Amino acid sequence: MTVVSHSRIFLKEGHLTLTGLSKRLALGAITALTTVGLMASVGLADTRSHPDESLEGASFLDIEEIRHRHDGRQLVHTLSTYEPWSADDLDNGSSILFKFNLDRDLAAERVVKVVAEQGEISAAMYNSSGRRIASIAVERPDNSSVEVRFRRSLLMSGLKRYRWRTRTSAHGCDDPNTEINPIANSMRCYDYAPNNDQITHRL
Prior knowledge:
By secondary structure, the protein is mainly beta.
């Protein structure tokens, strides 16, 4: 899992007298520190997820990339998959979750769930008890992406930062690494991004 910033890094040539390997190591350290500083300041990052070989191609909802940004009081989160998909593909019990952690534990206090019914995609936000809070604006930037947008106050008033991750659940896949849903008695493919971590979004 790699986090990169949209910001460009410009290093002005100085009078560094180091040569050879020492110079390359020093410049590498400067570049790394500059990247971290820019990411913390702009609050805009991508997280790229590369599936392992056992799951590649197992589901049309395998996650390639997730992104976040904030625009005034609006928070925007985008998920992109490796394969294109339609509302009809999602309209079979499959779903996309954006999970938001507002405190220091590992649990999500807010969840945005994207589903489809009769060929129409919709999204709603729920609290940790599963109570529906609000409908959420959802768009398709392209045929392999979905984007949700909502007021930051829906997470928490005065929020300065939060952590988040995503999960997709694809119904009816036939990969041997999938899980069986005991209620629906069907195969489901799950994918997560980040796989074992959460992204911090500073506002």
